[in-house]
């Protein structure tokens, strides 16, 4: 073996270390246990079919509607309701800063129906069953919208009114 | 067998179309169905420059209390001394630090520093001035906000977009009128009667008076003005015949700290 060299000169031979896998058994057993624990959630659910959520539409407000239509076509809403809510929010809270002193709070849908652009006062009036309608899918896909830290879901209030 | 070139292009084209997203595909397949629009509510009150006049010659403590209560009720302002669960009650020294206030009262020497004379009329000394956000023409809170969560609308209202507030509290440092409050705690346990038509706030955002922008949009006057028994006047400063202009034409009015150059738009008739 060549001498161990650097810019200061020649040094003694590089020490020879025997290449050996120490404590192999313990390490392998430890790794197996580690991976078993980390992948436990997958093993628990393997082969199981988690049923897709079925958001419920059976609120009294929806039952009263003659034409059961949301503000936009249902398929579109299913894919884009978050964008719609963000658009509503920008339009109601901020847009007047650009477009002059007026409040654009009324949303006109493509088929000409008019709605107040409001999560708590329009969406939640019909979909008053937040746990059945919103939370089910959001939990299923593991998203946590931050709406409800400030905005009021009317579930409790509607339940009280129905009880009366 | 694999697919031939024709099939490959067809599949790629269709999947691109679908992959371009819901909206693009919808527009191609069902043109015109998604043309939505935003309209102003026909009843909305509009102005070029909203302003308020507080008539301290008529205002008394009972009326001021009514105004404060009306505001706190319709804006879900938490009352730290009066929580839903008595266990959450905040000790008085913390209440001063954590208090959320949109509209409040204070004495002349605190409200108008720099304007006090050595000898003031006893009446003025004893007055509890009703204070609120001044909706300045040159608002320092807007200038310092790093996310533009606070902005000035064209009708003069200094608005907050709670969705954008990151709770840095620069605006609280910038505001010379202490009109802004930080939510040190979750306000929900301190709101006994929740007003369903207005959201609450969250822990970690700043809030302040918004001149009842949400009520103006519905054609209603601000809550404090409605409760004020005529001691608060609200109107368009650019309209010569509005109640605020009429009042300012007749009486001499002062403003809080005008020498700072923020041009506050709440006037006090003393």
Write structural notes for this entry.
The complex is a heterodimer of chains A (164) and B (270). With 164 residues, chain A is mainly α. Chain A is 48% helix and 7% strand. Chain A has two domains: 4-45, no CATH class; 60-163, no CATH class. Chain A is built from eight helices and four strands, in the order ββαααααββααα. Chain A has a two-stranded antiparallel ribbon. Chain A has a two-stranded antiparallel sheet with strand order 3-4. In chain A, a hairpin with a 2-residue loop joins strand 1 (4-6) and strand 2 (9-11). The longest helix of chain A has 20 residues, at 74-93. Chain B is of the alpha+beta class. Chain B contains eleven helices and eleven strands. Chain B has helices spanning 5-19, 22-29, 61-74, 92-98, 108-111, 122-126, 140-144, 170-174, 213-216, 223-227, 243-250, and strands at 37-39, 50-55, 103-106, 129-132, 150-152, 158-160, 181-182, 206-207, 232-236, 253-254, 266-269. A four-stranded mixed β-sheet of chain B has the order 9-2-11-10. Chain B is elongated and about 100 Å long. Classes of the chains: A mainly alpha (164), B alpha+beta (270). At the A-B interface, helix 4 and strand 3 of A face helix 2 and strand 1 of B.
Secondary-structure map:
The complex is a heterodimer of chains A (164) and B (270).
Chain A: E1 4-6, E2 9-11, H1 24-38, H2 40-45, H3 60-64, H4 74-93, H5 96-99, E3 106-108, E4 114-116, H6 119-126, H7 130-140, H8 155-163
Antiparallel strand pairs in A: 1-2, 3-4
Chain B: H1 5-19, H2 22-29, E1 37-39, E2 50-55, H3 61-74, H4 92-98, E3 103-106, H5 108-111, H6 122-126, E4 129-132, H7 140-144, E5 150-152, E6 158-160, H8 170-174, E7 181-182, E8 206-207, H9 213-216, H10 223-227, E9 232-236, H11 243-250, E10 253-254, E11 266-269
Parallel strand pairs in B: 2-11
Antiparallel strand pairs in B: 2-9, 3-4, 5-6, 7-8, 10-11
